[in-house]
Amino acid sequence: MNAGRLDSVPIGRRVAYWRGRRKLSQQLFADRLGKSKSWVDKVERGVRRLDKLSTLQEIAAVLRVDPVVLRDPDTQPVELTERHQGVERIRAALCRYEIPLGRPAGRRPVLPADRMARQVGYAWTAFQHARYAQLADLLPDLLTDVQRTHAHQPGPGRVPLVEAYRITAGLLVKLGAADVAWLAADRAMLAATGDRSLVAAAAVQLGQVLRAAGRAREAQSLLRAAAYRIAPSVIEYGTPPELSLCGTLLVQAALAAASHEGDSATAELIDEAAGMAERVGDGHDHYRTGFGPTAVDLARTAVAVESGDARAAIGWHGKATGRAGWRWLPAEHRAAHLLDTACAYLHTDDPTNAAHVLLEAERTAPSEIRYRPAAWDLLGQLARDPYAPTTITRLATTLGVG
Question: Per the database record, which ranges form the HTH cro/C1-type domain (predicted)?
């Protein structure tokens, strides 16, 4: 068999081809993999499928080839498939209207509001630790359960309902599904109506969704309105939760403004947020915002990238990561910032530092790289650079990023 014509050959036959090239018997190959000879035979005959990326990597390591050489070119990478399936499961859950239609709950019990709040808290923890695949599996049932709880206990069930929709919108933005995220964020806003703090919290995710959907002007208008609605009349009298919500909304408004307005409007918004951050301090997570002086410096990095000032972005990155508050931020927040910084380095024609920062993001929160379309785009750009470190090309090969 010609090695150059392997693309059209089933994966099992490719394994057999490379095993023959390496002069390994089925038994010896099986021993090195820690498998049985029967297992190898079934793989090579196509009786057993190779669905797990980890198994494919082990086989490639024994055969001394890149995993991409074995992978079927018509088969999507595992992460891409999981991302698509996760989005579709959540979409299906959002398309069910069991409560308005009076459908029975089936065998699943209706959870009391306090227990539902704990479940939602667990989901937030999964999000902040960037466990996106786990969260995508969790959310469909969580959305159904939280709607039922709210129907039976409208008062105490309201906060878990809004928070569940916020998490859903946040995850879907990460996964590149802004259209479905918009539905979740819209429901969060509707459920929050009448509660000023809940509306402000839901507006954070709605602003992110609008930006992801390319509606920066609408996002800025919404975010500013929500920020000034929750803002205390005198900043010195504002509570940390109020200031955290208001400051986060102003930061998001600055990010929206950076894409279509001048530097003065952006700087005004983020400077106002910085003043509030100083009063809140680092190490807090009011309304799951992580707001504080370090978060504002991270936002200045993102704003500078959005505005096209890569060198300023790198400077703010150095200041932010030098703060004590950097290590207190959730893994998701830190990894997302590192992606912004990698973009900044790439824009200054420094692929080496861009690669180092991207790999640091992958160590901090692997799912931030493996499931986000934006991260794949960045990884693909770096992998095509002739000066990219081998660790980057290896990661790109593993994920099937071209």
Answer: 15-70
